[in-house]
Amino acid sequence: MQHYLIVGCGDIGNRVGKILLEQGAQVTATAKTEERASELQEKGFSTVVGNFDYQEDAPKLPCSGKQVFYFMPPQGGGKSDYRMLNFCRQLSPENTPKKLVYISTSGVYGDCGGEVVTEDRPINPQTARAMRRASAENQLMEQAEKLGFELVILRVTGIYGPGRLPVARIVQGHPVLLPEDASFTNRIHAFDLVQVCLAAMERGEHGDIFNVCDGQESSMTDYFLAVADLYALERPKQISMAQAEKVMNPLMLSYQKESRRMSNRKMLDKLNITLQFPTLQDGLKVCREEE
After folding, report:
1. Which of 54, 145, 193, 215 is buried deepest, with most CB atoms within 10 A?
2. What is the pLDDT of residues 62-77, one digit of tens each?
3. Does the CA dihedral 239-161-42-29 come out positive or negative?
C-alpha cells in the first residue's frame, strides 16, 4: 500500500487525498485543530494535529519513505516562510520523504511586463508574499540536496473553482481596473490543479519546476466581469490605475501591478496533462453547477 502525507489539507489537499483514498492508498493529513482532524478522519484520512507557526507547536511528522504533498501556505507576514522552516527542521537522514511536491506561486517571477514566462526565467519576487514563497522553494531545494529526496515544484497561478470565486467582493462593490490599465493574469481551475498535483507526483522528476495555468490570456478585470455575469450581479465599477492606488485594497493592488503571461507547455507535455477547463468560460459553468 502506498502511503502519502499531505501537509496543509485545505480544498486542494482534500480533493487530492480523496482520489488517493479511492485508489486504495493510505493518506495522512495535517490539521490545525482537533475539529478539522475529526472532519478529515470521517473522510478516511489519518491525521496529525499541530500548528506550524511555532517550532514548539509543530507536530512530529512521519515522513520517512513517504510521498509528501506540501500545500500549506506561508504565514501572513515577513519575507521568509517560517512554517516551512518548522517543517524542514523535522527532516533528517532518518526522516526523509521519498518524494515531495510543493505548491508555490507564479508570483515568484515578479512583474514581467506582460512577457511570456517559461520555467527557465529567473525568479524575481517583488512582494513580501512572493518572497515567502521563494524562501519556501529555497528551503526545500536545500533539504532535497542534503538528504537526497525528489522534489517537484509547481508554480501555480490564480486558483478558481467551486467556492473560490470573488462573488463576495463583487457584491461588496470592490472596483476593478479599466481594461486598458489591467495587466495580464493567469488562472487554473481547482479540478485541473488536482490532476496536475497527482501527475507531478507520478511523472515529475527531481528538480522539475512546472508553471501551472490554463494558458488562456486575460486580466483580473476580465475575470471579475465574467463572474459578475455568471451570477447576474451588477458589474464592478471600473477605475484607472491612478484611482486604484488611492482606493484599492493594498493586496489586490499588488496583484494588479504585476503582469505575466505564463507558458504551460512544459506542464502539458511532460506531465501529459489534458486540461478539463482550458478556458475561463468552461470552468465557470462547472463552478456554478457544483455550487
Report:
1. 193
2. 999 999 999 999 999 9
3. negative
